[in-house]
Specification:
Number of helices: 15
Oligomer: single chain
Distance between the termini: 45 Å
Number of strands: 35
Shape: globular
Number of domains: 5
Bound molecules: adenosine monophosphate, magnesium ion
CATH superfamily of the largest domain: Spore Coat Polysaccharide Biosynthesis Protein SpsA, Chain A
Largest sheet: 7 strands, mixed
Strand order of the largest sheet: 5-4-1-6-8-7-9
CATH architecture of the largest domain: Alpha-Beta Complex
Structural class: alpha/beta
Helix content: 10-25%
CATH class of the largest domain: Alpha Beta
Length: about 625
């Protein structure tokens, strides 16, 4: 296996660019392209594929990366190169990851090869480039370049543990590993460009290369820190999916208790289904060879086979057996004549015309549905009524299923009142807990309703810790948006490894996702927005697939197409989920109209709807009559 095929490249482009005036360094114009494009050019030939870690301007990086992924930090708030390394290792599909920073466009083209040689020779977890430099007195010293390293993907748990301590320094993490250092002679090859002056200096001192077919960023328009670009829905879903793993505990239940549960192991059929060759019709079983080639033939009935009461005797030439649907085929017979196809039936004789049926017709063969030893239902299937029947048809009365997920949920906000309370001035009744209860119960979770929690640090901390101790997952609503005048975000960030995303979607822009720790226990956190429609939409888009994955089940949602009965306004650059009513148009084609005002607080729009109209990220306004994609509520269990 070639070295190249074992290595994934990771460009670290997630820095703040502080010394460049907080511009996005990687996207700065450089020699006819961008800095990051030059890094990509040097890295790509050394590795199987390249990913880019970026925290801002994701669409520009994506345009550069083509089919390669752009990975935003999993940790919040420009946590530094280790955060980039973390997401890189999480993604890394190969054994090794080679990192290079977006602002060093001169590194050696044999970097991977030399680092790998040292790593193998020293049996190290990682190898790092080192150069010799001189201090201001001319004294030599070794300069490590931790951002140029080749690292085993298997070190991810160690990195997670290191980051869990709150530490963020690359050197600190590398101290926990076995490191091979590789001395490179050419220190200039590892130099990076930190300031706009340096950038201009390099531009002046080298001829512009022919511009690559890459979009150069408009430096003037680069967004500042604190205003990171919104994360596309699909990207957030992918980041969640990559972290979540199924809970492994299972239990064995009597079949009747297993409805809606997720199968822990394949159901293997212990028998052939059907178990015996049997008749598909009420009629006459006979030997196909006795059927007339022309004219008619008359058969004598020698007995009757009922379902459950076989007839054991083999008919002779021009004899037949009266047979009922489901009855075993008598020995020697291979054909059933449906009674309505007989030319005449007179007492115990049956007359059959040529070509009334073919030999071999109307038989269900043993094992035709399922053979003994075959997989009747694959693991991961959520058992539906048909599955219950199928399992019963195999004679299986006990099934192994995944244990139910325990999901704790609470609402946050001082303005929330519970049912039965007086509605004070400026307050609202807490509705989110009721939609969450419904959605979680439908998913088959064991729910732990923790009520309303005030915007109070101690109360929030106690609730989150308590939830992490009892549950596999925690769902909260409210308090995660940037402007939220409460402590929810701060407390979540302190108690765990939580990322706060601003999503390119509507409704439901803010989302917190991560892990909350309580001593030895931990639980996945989904911090949903506060607005009632946003809660439901973000639950369906992010929490639902993650919970199903934890349950070990499948989560693909069936979507259907319908004609828009009216024009729909849509801004490209974000995914919109509008509430719709699907009906059948006068020409029989399914059509959808929206349920009036679509504000993210208007729960009635959700209640009246029977579907969600999904308007994709790049989609623009929809004209009346165009087809749009729908998710049916009936499918959203
Ligand atoms: P927040 O994200 O906490 O600022 O909440 C956004 C909006 O959603 C505010 O108008 C809140 O009053 C409302 N909201 C938050 N939680 C709930 C809830 N549990 N039930 C109904 N409305 C809520
Ligand atoms: Mg709030």
């Amino acid at each position: 296996m070639s070295l190249k095929s074992k290595v994934t490249g990771l460009i670290l482009a997630g820095g703040r660019g502080t010394r460049m005036g907080r511009v996005d360094k990687g996207l700065q114009p450089f020699r006819g392209a961008t800095l990051v494009a030059h890094v990509l050019d040097r890295l790509a030939p050394q590795v199987a594929s390249v990913a880019i870690n970026a925290t801002r301007n994701l669409p520009q990086y994506q345009a550069l990366a083509g089919a390669s992924p752009v990975l935003p930090d999993y940790l919040d708030g420009f946590a530094g190169p280790l955060a980039g390394l973390q997401i890189g290792l999480q993604f890394c599909p190969t054994e090794l990851l080679l990192t290079a920073p977006c602002d060093s466009p001169f590194f050696p083209l044999d970097l991977a090869r030399r680092l790998h040689a040292a790593m193998t020779e020293q049996d190290a977890d990682m190898a790092m480039a080192v150069t010799m430099e001189r201090d201001e007195h001319g004294a030599p010293y070794r300069q490590p370049h931790p951002v140029f390293s080749l690292i085993k993907a298997s070190t991810l748990p160690q990195l997670d543990a290191y980051l869990d301590t709150g530490a963020r320094r690359m050197e600190g993490f590398f101290n926990t590993l076995k490191v091979a250092e590789v001395l490179f002679d050419d220190s200039a090859a590892f130099s990076n460009i930190n300031t706009l002056e340096e950038l201009q200096h390099h531009e002046r001192n080298a001829p512009a290369q022919p511009p690559a077919a890459l979009p150069a960023a408009d430096a003037g328009a680069a967004p500042r820190d604190g205003d990171p670009p919104a994360l596309p829905v699909a990207e957030a879903q992918r980041l969640i999916r990559e972290r979540i793993v199924p809970v492994d505990a299972t239990e064995t239940l009597p079949l009747l208790a297993a409805l809606d549960r997720v199968l822990a192991a394949d159901i293997i059929s212990p028998i052939d289904v059907p178990a015996h060759d049997n008749s598909a019709m009420d009629g006459y079983a006979l030997r196909g060879a006795d059927l007339p080639g022309e004219g008619t033939a008359t058969f004598k009935t020698i007995g009757v086979a009922y379902a459950g009461h076989p007839f054991a005797q083999a008919p002779q030439a021009n004899e037949c057996v009266r047979i009922m649907t489901g009855a075993s085929i008598p020995p020697g017979c291979d054909t059933v004549l449906p009674q309505e196809l007989a030319t005449a039936i007179d007492g115990d004789t049956v007359t059959i015309a040529a070509h009334a049926i073919r030999a071999g017709a109307n038989l269900r063969r043993a094992g035709e549905d399922l053979q003994a030893g075959g997989v009747a239902i694959p693991a991961g299937k959520r058992l539906r009524p048909a599955d219950m029947g199928l399992i019963a048809s195999l004679g299986i009365g006990q099934v192994g299923v995944r244990r139910r997920l325990k999901v704790a949920f609470f609402s946050t906000g001082d303005e929330l009142r519970s049912l039965g309370d007086k509605l004070d001035e400026g307050c609202v009744y807490d509705s989110n807990r009721y939609t969450l209860f419904g959605m979680l119960t439908r998913l088959g979770c064991d729910v732990i309703d923790m009520g309303v929690v005030k915007d109070d640090p101690q109360a929030l901390e106690a609730a989150l810790r308590g939830a992490a101790r009892q549950a596999d997952a925690i769902i909260t609503s409210g308090g995660v948006s940037e402007g939220a005048a409460d402590y929810t975000r701060d407390i979540m960030a302190v108690l765990g490894d939580v990322a706060f995303w601003k999503l390119a979607m509507r409704p439901g822009r803010p989302l917190a996702f991560g892990k909350i720790q309580a001593g030895q226990d931990s639980a996945w956190l989904f911090g949903l927005p506060g607005n009632p429609v946003a809660v439901m939409v973000s639950f369906y888009m992010f929490a639902r697939p993650a919970l199903l994955r934890m349950m070990g089940g499948e989560s693909a949602l069936q979507t259907v197409q319908a004609r828009a009965a009216e024009a729909i306004r849509k801004r490209p650059g974000r995914t919109e989920y509008q509430r719709g009513i699907l009906s059948t148009g006068s020409d029989g084609v399914p059509q959808v109209r929206l349920t009036g005002a679509q504000g993210s607080g208007i729960l009635r729009s959700m209640s009246e709807a029977n579907c969600i109209v999904v308007l994709h990220h790049d989609q623009a306004n929809v004209a009346a009559g165009e087809m749009v994609e729908l998710m049916l509520f009936d499918g959203l269990v």
